[in-house]
Amino acid sequence: MNDMVDTRMAGTGLAKRVRDGFLQDRRELGPAQADDKWFAPLMDRWNGLLSRDEGGFSHEERVTLAVLMTECLSMRDALILASLREMGGGELHMLYAQPHSMESAAVVMRELSRAFKDADYQPDTRRGERATALLESVTADAPDGYEAQPMASCAYLLWMADRSTAAAVRALKALALDDDCSLASLVLAASEHGIRPAWTERRRH
Fold first, then answer.
1. Distance between CA 117 and CA 134 in Å, rounded?
2. Cα dihedral angle (23, 19, 43, 89), rounded to 10 degrees?
3. Domain span at residue 133?
4. 159: closest CA among 130, 139, 189, 137?
5. pLDDT digits (tens, 9 = 90+) for 153-193
6. CA–CA separation, 139 vs 175, rounded Å?
């Protein structure tokens, strides 16, 4: 228990340094260049970890991811979408570096729509399971104020895996930490109303 407290206390100081450095770079370099500097290496590492069944992030990487996912929801979305299927680097870069572009918005809306409406869409189960485990580790190391978004991301992936009870539990925890977390609200509403991912329709027939 003391080790966990010490880790979280250390993570709080690290999170402040990451947030301050990231926001300063965004002011001085511009959002696009700062996002590439801070997030591109982690996005590449995320994809690499999802392609194999071993390894993980360091404590510093986990805290940095928690901060970036909270400060920039487009980075959170890129991590989630890369967990459901293998995506090209250019497409992922567009998602987090140009979140307000028509092309980026179209990709996010398409993937969200497929999750709810396209019975032929089959997420990559192995990638999803691996990503869920990685997000659990990010949540465990996230200091106060940075836990909700990685937890809500985990909830969404669990819902996509048709594990609605586990998804609802994490969504509730995320909302307890941040009652404005819209992703957690979406997952909780779907779970409470018995809405399952569209791909499960094939399994039921």
1. 27
2. -10
3. 2-204
4. 189
5. 999 999 999 999 999 999 999 999 999 999 999 999 999 99
6. 14
**Exposed/middle/buried for residue 137 (C-beta within 10 Å: 0-12, 13-18, 19+):** middle
Number of structural domains in the chain: 1
Q: Side-chain half-sphere of 166: how many Cα atoms within 13 Å?
A: 13
User: Residue 162 corresponds to which tokens in the numbers above?
Assistant: 């048709």
Tell me, letter by letter, the H, E, C secondary structure of the chain.
CHHHHHHHHHHHHHHHHHHHHHHHHHHHHCHHHHHHHHHHHHHHHHHHHHCCCCCCCCHHHHHHHHHHHHHCHHHHHHHHHHHHCCCCHHHHHHHHHCCCCHHHHHHHHHHHHHHHHCCCCCCCHHHHHHHHHHHHHHHHHCCCCCCHHHHHHHHHHHHHCCCHHHHHHHHHHHHHHCCCCHHHHHHHHHHHCCCCCCCHHHHHC
Q: How wide is the angle at C-alpha 139 spanned by C-alphas 134 and 145, nearest 5°?
A: 150
Q: How do residues 62-101 score in pLDDT, each as one tens digit?
A: 999 999 999 999 999 999 999 998 887 788 888 888 888 8
Q: Residue 153's closest CA among 117, 178, 118?
A: 178
Residues 78, 75: Cα–Cα separation, whole Å: 5
**Closest to 201 measured CA to CA, from 112, 110, 121, 96:** 121
